[in-house]
Amino acid sequence: MNEPAWLFQAFAQAALPAYGLDGAQVRLLNVSENGTFRVDHPQQGLSVLRVHRSGYHSEAAIRSELAWIEALRAEGVVRTPAFLPTLDRSPVARVELPDGQSRHVVRFTWVDGTEPDETRLTRDFAELGEITARLHRHARSWRRPAGFTRFVWDYDTSLGEKGHWGRWQDGLGVGPAELAVLGRLDEALRGRLAEYGQGESRFGLVHADMRLANLLVDGDKVTVIDFDDCGFSWYMYDFASAVSFIEHESYVPELAQAWVGGYRSVTEPSAADVAELPTFVMLRRLLLVAWIGSHRSTETAQAMGPQYTAVSCELAERYLSGRLFG
Questions:
Q1: What pairs with residue 31 in β-bridges?
Q2: Is the pLDDT of residue 228 over 80?
Q3: What residue spans of the chain are helical by DSSP H?
Q4: Averaged over 5-11, what is the pLDDT?
């Protein structure tokens, strides 16, 4: 699943003429599922290019993501960057290298801001809960355009044989002891999620990756970026994605309370929704064990390493004994 940064860079450079950006400076911001670049053009200023990796999203799926972004912006639901079409007005560029390799590329407006820091996390999570509730309210009522298609993030496509990010069993540092603990977690999650169900009030179109790295704070403004993983999942999964990589921190229960409080300012989650937040946190955690294993060459995966699996086992034991949030 890994593609080298230099290949993403080559496609970013090759995409510039499609947007009239000849002569622009291109700088890599990060490589995760895709390669994301800051583009600085003398006349057009700053923008962002996202080069999609091969074999992940189809062009129809990318266009579906952009359709939701466009609707959210048009209706003032959340702050999120606009996408910028190519010179021929296409929302998605298809770029080909001389060797015949091709990729999809999307361009977005530049938004100032920084990732939230720990000094204001509770405040930001209250606002994030409100933002998330607005997203969910919109998703429930929005009439999706014909041909709309996005990933489904249910048990089978997260942890099962059809997992989008591979098998958690192939995660870094997963040995016999870890297999035993995380296997019990997997079984418990499958049962809890089946019992919770996928009714219309619980399961629908979500951002699915609203972690801190995908929030930009500029004064009192919080902007949501990167809808690349948006798809169909449990609404409460959006909280779990928000605490990605920090699930072990002692302040996560406080963040959950702040998030739920913000959510309630828009719409009331059921008691069952709130009670199941730890389940979704652990679903996401185990999914990230799989992601780290299948993306082990990325900076994020290397920074997490086998220690992420070790801590995941500790969290699994706490969850299985009903102590994840206290």
A1: 35
A2: yes
A3: 5-15, 59-74, 121-141, 155-158, 176-196, 237-242, 252-264, 271-275, 277-294, 299-320
A4: 95
Per-domain boundaries in the chain: 5-109, 118-320
**Homologous superfamily, domain 118-320:** Aminoglycoside phosphotransferase (APH), C-terminal lobe (3.90.1200.10)
Over range 112-132, report the average pLDDT. Answer: 86
Task: Please check the confidence at residue 112 and state whether its pLDDT lies above 70.
Answer: yes
User: How far apart (Å, rounded) are the C-alpha atoms in residues 1 and 8?
Assistant: 13
Which residue pairs, CB below 8 angstroms and at least 24 apart, start in 174-178?
A: 174/289, 174/293, 174/309, 177/313, 178/309, 178/310, 178/313
For residue 237, give Cα distances in angstroms to 70, 78, 100, 146, 274. 23, 18, 39, 26, 11
Of 303, 280, 231, the closest CA to residue 32 belongs to 303
Percentage with pLDDT > 70 across the chain: 99
Helix axes 277-294, 299-320, angle to 10 degrees: 140
In 3-state terms, what secondary structure has residue 250? coil
Closest CA to 109 of 142, 144, 81, 70: 81
Domains 5-109 and 118-320 share a fold: no
pTM: 0.94
pLDDT value at residue 1: 58
Q: What dotted CATH number matches 5-109? A: 3.30.200.20
pLDDT digits (tens, 9 = 90+) for 200-220: 999 999 999 988 788 898 888
Residue 188 predicted with pLDDT over 70: yes
